[in-house]
Amino acid sequence: MPLQQSAWLNKNQPEAAPWTAKALQAVFVEDVLKNKRNSAAVEIAPNTLLAARLLDHRPASTRSLAEVGDSIRQKLQHQQAIELATLQGKMLLEQLQRGEKVNVAWKAPVTATRLKHPGLNNDLTRQVFQVNASKLPAYTGVENPQGGYMLARLDEVKDVADVDGKSRAEFQQKLRQLTGDALYKSYLSDAKKNVGVTMKDFAASEIK
User: Fold this and answer.
1) What is the DSSP letter of 16?
2) Neighbouring residues of 70: CB distance < 8 A, sequence distance ≥ 6
3) Whole-angstrom distance, CA of residue 167 vs CA of residue 113
């Protein structure tokens, strides 16, 4: 294979081919950094080995404002755009809840249950099921983890069909398990408090 020259590396950078965690670890060892020896050969993919030779090494340092100015500016602009989108989303929600007409491009409606809600964010789904459905349409919203704000409109509430025996048994088993776990934790907490029991967590390697 022809020799290739990499860009600057640092030991804490995210993994990206060909610089796997093992490859970076092999480069940042004393024998390579101080003695400028070749690194050990490291397998970075099946039947693919990588070895590196140091050309230059500089201690970590703080970059100048001139170097990072554009990057900082972009991050600040992105953060500001997210904050403005969130603020606008909350204002639209308040208008909708007051019954005002608002121009919102809603997506195609979907039917959702607590367990199955295709295309809907989990947090938004939880908010939908907490909405007062006495007067429809009803509206709710939640901040988007990826940035911005998500709105939802509840148009109709349907009664679910009777749960079949198998599903009912599964739900009952999960409920018993959850209840049992809660009671067990409560018992342990009470025991530690009133009986003076000391608990110790063991790593898997300690258990033989």
Assistant:
1) B
2) none
3) 15
Q: Quick one: DSSP state of residue 205?
A: G
Q: Vertex 155, ends 154 and 157: CA angle to 5°?
A: 85
82-120 confidence digits (pLDDT tens): 999 999 999 999 999 999 998 888 999 988 888 788 888
Token readout for 28 is 């940042």
The reported pLDDT for the residue numbered 156 is 92
- 12 token code pair: 């804490």
Which residue's structure tokens are 């198998």?
A: 166
- C-alpha span between 130 and 139 (Å, rounded): 11
Looking at residue 97, what is its pLDDT? 93
> Which residues, including other chains, have CB under 8 Å from residue 122's CB and lie 6 or more apart?
none
Q: Which pTM value belongs to this model?
A: 0.49
Mean pLDDT score of the chain, rounded to an integer?
Answer: 83
